[in-house]
Write a structure and sequence with these properties.
This protein is of the alpha/beta class. The protein is built from 32 helices and 21 strands. A hairpin with a 4-residue loop joins strand 11 and strand 12. Helix 26 packs antiparallel against helix 30 and helix 28 runs antiparallel to helix 29.
């Protein structure tokens, strides 16, 4: 269980801050001196040329999967190699029809897989689109607009509200700067940034308060910064490079390879023994060439040649089901891998919650209206008519009271002091008639000390805030004060005292409607949901309790606390905790790595920082608007984010697994039974018990109903637990039930051997096909066959079709001339019918006893 070592890399030792950390403690003068420039002039043309020669273009190569790479991937299975060899051998020994049939199986499987994965790749390319970014720089003392790919270290870049930061910048001037770093942190709430040197070098993204990372977005304010990293030398570039170094194969593909190896060696050893022993026992009567052809045909008969088609049908069907739910599957086998996971690690924002702040509760002072005042102090609340530029103002706009809508035109905007990250509040001044007021909004701890005594008790206010905090809500305080008319912006701070407390407003990111039901569904499937977020512990714990993954909102571990533990304690902690807060990219990777020691892990990410963890996970999922690097590292893309579609995908993956195992057990048991019986019969007669073409007819008529198992329905107990391929268990059941099949095949041999070669071969062919078909209805469930969900329509219809064809072919000229069959008598049919009935009762009995006693495992 767990992950192959080849996927693991020392991610926890990779420092993505290495390229920028040293710059966080530099003063502005030291920074400018490092690049021999002034902030008024910027780089000269000569300096730009030197820097570009050393560092190259400011771009990260985005790998695109080509069509021929997808096609090549379809031939990577060892099972396909076995089938190709079988087809070649059949063609060499003069059985072109059979060679063509196997070739058609290969082509059908390859075409279906290629089409599905190629269409998914096209969808991913459409999602990427083509984006050309520009940058505003200062060179040779002149501001100019250039392509962002032409930026070099030392360039002075100016950014403002709405700009995407084009390279890693160390800010040298900032004005009320707020940046959305969700591409790195996964949290959409903007963070303040400044231009002052840090006392201690930053080691985490969230600590780098004077750095603007490439790909993040300016939400408000403006800034000037010096480029300190471009292209592969940015933090994002470091992550991209690590993603390229992280490789691994699908668990499904590994298990299919093991199955192929097992079957191949078993067949080779058995056939060698069969051939040599026949030559030894029969001596001069043996026909070596005829025996060789028979042995090769028998080998083809025991190989489940339709397995690739069955799995592809099942996976394609699952992919279509998921596509209807707006899920793009990039790699078909990822569907079955998804079914194997027992731990799903997911972010909070946008997956569990709606990623949309809304006003939740109000605490109002008597005769005050904090919501009205907060709206009035918003960008949309006065004659500036600006649109909201942060999630708090957008929430206020959506909850604006009617009194605000009716009267906002009576107020005139006078001035403001923008939000300051250090002061943690902003001021807006508005005028109505001959009255001018100032409104202060911000963190309660920064505003309450500025207010005169509140009419409500301080304890009551504190209790309200504590309760809101325990519920995971964010709070702003609102205060106001009447000030002299025509007070200018630069004088507002003089009046920021003795404020009148208006009240408090709490905000919440609501849960998605489907989240709680999805978590309950996951519990039914025995999948543990672990929430890994960059948000604070209080919010994370509250959300975890609401959705039911923890009982205690304080059952949370932070990244800092995790780092302080020993390796053994970390292993225990990742098993114990289901909510992880303030988690850095390295810590996220570490959590998944530790979990994979005992679990199959799925991971849902979106930011560039998630890409290495996505590559590490057994199954990686991203949302539509994830970064390109994250999408390329993923197996599955969600066009609509939500836990419900992921859990539905897990169930679909388990259905695929269950149906694939049904096919493997059914075909191996049946084929082994026929294989051993026919091989054993060769020792007692001087003719072939079944002709090569007849063996392949058995496979042909039984394969189509077998293939339809991909559409079968499953009981809840077949999919409620994560399953894995246990080759030993599958082989044990197939061999035991194969022995039962062999016994009844030999019974048929005993009943008809005295009637001559053609009668024996015809009746053995009919009984072989019918026993395989009824066995399919037994092996499809662990229960009594009547106490389970009904088979799918394709299984019933194709089985009936195969039965009719089996009974009719011996009476046709095709059956007599091509397959050397003879029409059975009525007594033959009665005898075969009784044999098939007793065989079905026997397999049902052995199956039920095996599962009841625990000899057959359901794992």
């Amino acid at each position: 269980m767990g992950l192959c070592n080849d996927k693991r890399v020392e991610y926890n030792k990779v420092d993505f801050m290495l390229s920028v950390s040293e710059y966080t403690t530099l003063t502005v003068d030291d920074l400018l001196s490092k690049y021999s420039l002034s902030n008024e002039k910027g780089l000269t043309d000569d300096q730009v040329i030197v820097q570009r020669q050393e560092h190259g273009l400011n771009q990260i190569t985005s790998k695109q999967t080509l069509w021929w790479e997808i096609l090549k991937r379809q031939f990577s299975s060892p099972f396909v190699y076995i089938l190709i060899v079988c087809a070649l051998l059949l063609a060499i020994i003069g059985e072109p029809i059979d060679a063509v049939m196997i070739t058609l199986f290969i082509l059908l499987n390859t075409t279906l897989s290629f089409y599905q994965e190629f269409q998914s790749e096209k969808t991913i390319q459409l999602l990427k689109g083509i984006i050309y970014t520009r940058a505003r720089v200062r060179r040779n003392g002149v501001e100019q607009i250039i392509d962002s790919k032409d930026l070099v270290p030392g360039d002075i870049v100016i950014v403002e509200n709405g700009d995407v930061i084009p390279a890693d910048l160390r800010f040298i001037e900032t004005t009320s700067l707020m940046i959305n770093e969700s591409i790195l942190s996964g949290e959409s709430a903007p963070v303040p940034r400044h231009d002052k040197p840090l006392i201690k070098a930053a080691t985490e993204f969230n600590e780098a308060e004077n750095i603007g990372f490439s790909g993040t977005t300016v939400v408000s304010g403006k800034a000037m910064g010096v480029v300190i990293g471009t292209g592969e030398q940015t933090a994002i570039g470091e992550i991209s490079n690590l993603v390229e170094k992280t490789h691994g194969s699908s668990g499904f593909e590994q298990n299919l390879s093991k199955l192929s190896t097992f079957i191949l060696w078993m067949v080779i050893v058995t056939l060698i023994l069969l051939y040599i022993s026949n030559i030894f026992i029969k001596g001069p009567d043996a026909n070596p060439f005829e025996l060789l052809i028979f042995s090769i045909t028998l080998a083809v008969g025991v190989i489940p040649e339709a397995l690739p088609v069955v799995t592809t049908f099942a996976l394609s069907r699952g992919a279509r089901e998921l596509a209807d739910k707006k899920v793009v599957v990039k790699r078909l086998s990822a569907i079955e891998d998804l079914g194997s996971i027992d731990i799903l690690c997911t972010d909070k924002t946008g997956t569990i919650t709606q990623n949309t702040l809304t006003v939740d509760s109000l605490y109002e002072e008597p005769d005050q209206d904090p919501l009205f005042l907060a709206c009035l102090a918003s960008p949309f609340g006065n004659e500036t008519s600006k649109q909201p530029n942060n999630s708090f103002d957008l929430a206020l706009l959506n909850r604006a009271p009617q009194s605000f809508t009716d009267t906002k035109s009576q107020y005139t905007f006078v001035g403001e002091v923008p939000f300051d990250p250090e002061r943690r509040r902003n001021i807006v001044s508005v005028k109505k008639g001959k009255t001018q007021i100032m409104i202060v909004r911000g963190a309660p701890e920064s505003i309450l000390p500025l207010c005169i005594s509140c009419k409500q008790s301080e304890q009551e206010i504190s209790n309200w805030m504590n309760q809101q905090g325990r519920d995971g809500k964010r709070i702003i305080a609102v205060a106001t004060k009447e000030i002299p008319l025509h007070t200018a912006d630069d004088s507002l701070l003089e009046y920021e005292k003795d404020l009148i407390f208006a009240g408090l407003i709490s905000f919440i990111d609501p849960l998605k409607d489907s989240t709680i039901s999805a978590v309950n569904h996951a519990k039914q499937l025995n999948v543990g949901i672990k929430m890994i977020t960059g948000d604070n512990a209080e919010v994370a714990g509250a959300v975890g309790k609401k959705i039911g993954i923890v009982d205690d909102p304080e059952a949370v571990i932070t990244g800092t606390e995790l780092d302080k533990l020993t390796h053994a304690e970390q292993e225990e902690a990742v098993e114990k905790y289901f909510v992880f807060a303030r988690i850095s990219p390295q810590q996220k990777y570490r959590i998944i790595e530790l979990l994979q020691n005992n679990h199959e892990v799925g991971f849902l990410g979106e930011g560039i920082n998630d890409a290495p963890a996505l590559k590490l996970a057994n199954v990686s999922l991203v949302v539509q608007d994830a970064s390109d690097i994250a999408r390329e590292a993923s197996d599955i893309v969600l066009l609509e984010s939500g836990l419900d579609v992921i859990v539905m995908g897990i169930q679909e993956g388990r259905n695929v697994f269950a149906n694939t195992v049904k096919y493997i057990k059914a075909t191996l048991a049946s084929n082994f039974g026929n294989f051993f019986a026919v091989a054993s019969a060769t020792y007692f007669i001087n003719f072939l018990p079944m002709l090569p073409l007849q063996i392949l007819l058995v496979n042909l008529l039984s394969d189509f109903p077998m293939i339809s198992i991909a559409t079968d329905r499953n009981d809840l107990d077949q999919i409620k637990m994560p399953k894995r391929y246990h080759m030993g268990e599958i082989a044990k059941q197939a061999l035991i039930l194969g022995v039962v099949s062999t016994s009844f095949d030999l019974l048929v041999f005993r009943l008809f051997v005295s009637s001559g070669p053609q009668v024996l071969q015809t009746n053995w062919l009919i009984s072989s096909i019918l026993t395989e078909l009824v066995f399919l209805f037994s092996i499809r469930t662990n229960r009594f066959f009547l106490h389970t969900v009904a088979p799918s329509f394709p299984i019933i219809s194709l089985s009936l079709g195969a039965i009719i064809a089996t009974l009719v072919i011996p009476f046709t000229s095709l059956g007599r001339q091509l397959f050397s069959l003879t029409p059975p008598t009525q007594s033959n049919f009665i005898t075969i019918g009784l044999v098939v009935l007793v065989y079905f009762i026997s397999t049902e009995t052995i199956k039920l006893i095996g599962y009841k006693t625990g000899f057959f495992s359901e794992k």
